[in-house]
Amino acid sequence: MQGLEQLFYLHGIGFDYTKYNGEHVYFDHATRVDALRCCGVDTDDESHIAELNFLLDVKPWLEVVDEVTLAEAETGCFSLKVPQSARHSSVLIQIPDLALSTSFALSQAEVCGDYHYNGQIYLDLKVSVGALPAGYFNAQIEGGFGTKTTELWSVPKRCYAIEQDDVKRTGLSLQLYTLRSERNTGVGDFRDLHQVISSAAITHCDFILLNPLHLLFESEPERASPYSPSHRCLINPLYIALDWAVDTLREDFQLSIDEALGSVQIDCSQNYIDYSAVAKAKYAVLTHLFGKCEAVPAVRQALSEFKHDKEQTLSHSELTEREWFMQWLAHCQLGACQLHARQEGMAIGLINDLAVGCAQEGHEFTHNEPLFAKGANVGAPPDPWAEAGQNWGLPALNPIKVKQHNYAYFRSLVRSNMASFGALRIDHVMAIRRLWWCFESQGKQDGCYIYYPFEHLLAILKIESHLNRAMVIGEDLGIVPPEVSAAMSDANLYGNILMYFAKDHLGQFKPVEQYRADTLLMVANHDVAPFSAWWCHTDISLKLDYQLCSEHEAKEMVKAREDDKARLLTWLGLDGTHDAHQLSDAHNIYAAIVKKLAASPSKLLAIQLDDLEQQQLPVNIPGTDREYPNWRRRLAIPAEQTLEQNSHLMKEIKRIREQA
């Protein structure tokens, strides 16, 4: 293999894949060439291709160690690539950060591979320096080849696990912005979350799974999707509880800001959030607070310490002082929520959600643009729900450029999104192995899989999970490469099961006994209709109302739904045992479902707050943008009231979980 074919492989350009229906698909040459061009490669320049092949294939064997070297934390074992002539010499390995210095005879090292170049043979040798703590350490290797430096990553075998991680836990799943209260300013905020934590703890919940809290667009408040953010390392300031911020600044910093909330007038009775009105009011108050605070020494000191803490993750030049002030308030309130969750006895507390990408118009892309491919978006290949495939409109990371600065970009994403959380859910976790790229090829839309440095990205998840004491959950729905499933199992990286989609090849719902143990189990998520809507077909009626389907298509969907409901009743063991009236009660059926799921092997069970409320309207209809008001629907009543109404069900779930 040489030339362009070699570069395809070294650059992660996919060759083939197995489609959802079992069909083996091969990507044509033109498609792969255009994918490489998106990475800035001149595919017509043979010398350029040869240079890249040398840099990616040969050069690592000539350098002894790469800029990053992976070590097993348990043994301190890592790889050196040395000429065969050095096989009987020794090396001195020093890790100043750990005050470690040791000599190693290369003759004792295990040979794990070799490489032939220019008449020389290079050996891949495994050396060991003993057990190491998880983290990133500067290391120096001295030998007959000279002195080499590397950043040594000490990688635990498995992601962080909470104490008694074999105990089955139950929690809530909710979209923070949907929370309704008498005191919030039109959108659910961190003080609402604080209150929900108190109520959830009473109902024996060990965690609360949130939507992504990423920064959106202050100047375009109607861009409401948390999965198409401006910056994933920053928090959306609209989640700041203004009254909480005012109280904190008044009490902790002795500021006189009694009139700060006087101008906030928002109609909070509506079903859908008016983001323009909310943003105008909340940003005005936050700007007023900043103006009052920027000259106060105690606030400036606290803000300076916060910025210093975040400087390894974010460049100070990315944000104005006003924006840093808002991030400080948001992080303080979020941290207080997680602390409250742990103090209330929750084993995990808050679970964050990391979106798979960022918007091209946002701060994250602008600040890191050189790391991204040109003209390529990420999406998904054809599947039963989207036969033409999906283009998510998010720019694609170049798999070679993501390695720059020792993977600093990905490390900052993971670290930022684990801070103040007990666990991190990673949307579309397959992205650390491969992503479907959408781009133009020969004048038409095309696509293929691009592979990423899986071993290193997984290593970052393992290291950061231990440094932040946070579990890791991967949303592994859809087409999952077998190597990803195997690695997740080995790494204690939990998967994600949606009961709606847990079916066998005949379309029957799988017995819960077949569910994996290391998973987060849910009936549905934000992309699927709430259960009451699903059971009563109102999600189909809604699509018809918004002209998202024809009358004929709606009738076909209803027919298919009725078949699914019959399968569900069989799965529940209720077919033929209850009369029609009882079976028509959606909440009774839902209660039966979650009780059955409670007995499954899955260690984490998330109960969706929407389903407890018997909500009929979805938060999102996939495939739509402005047709339906996505990411705007509020809950009908306060969450505490819903939890109180369902306290008996939650108590029964706890009992089943303890006995299963």
Automatic annotation (TrEMBL):
The gene that this protein is the product of is malQ
Q: Which Pfam families match?
A: Glyco_hydro_77
- Its recorded name reads 4-alpha-glucanotransferase
Q: What is the lineage of its organism?
A: Bacteria, Pseudomonadati, Pseudomonadota, Gammaproteobacteria, Alteromonadales
PANTHER family, per this entry? Answer: 4-ALPHA-GLUCANOTRANSFERASE DPE1, CHLOROPLASTIC/AMYLOPLASTIC, 4-ALPHA-GLUCANOTRANSFERASE DPE1, CHLOROPLASTIC_AMYLOPLASTIC
**What protein family is recorded?**
Belongs to the disproportionating enzyme family.
- Quote the EC number: 2.4.1.25
Q: Which organism is it from?
A: Pseudoalteromonas viridis
What are the protein's GO molecular function terms? Answer: 4-alpha-glucanotransferase activity
Q: Which UniProt keywords apply?
A: Carbohydrate metabolism, Glycosyltransferase, Transferase
**Mind telling me which InterPro entries this protein's record contains?**
GH, Glyco_hydro_77
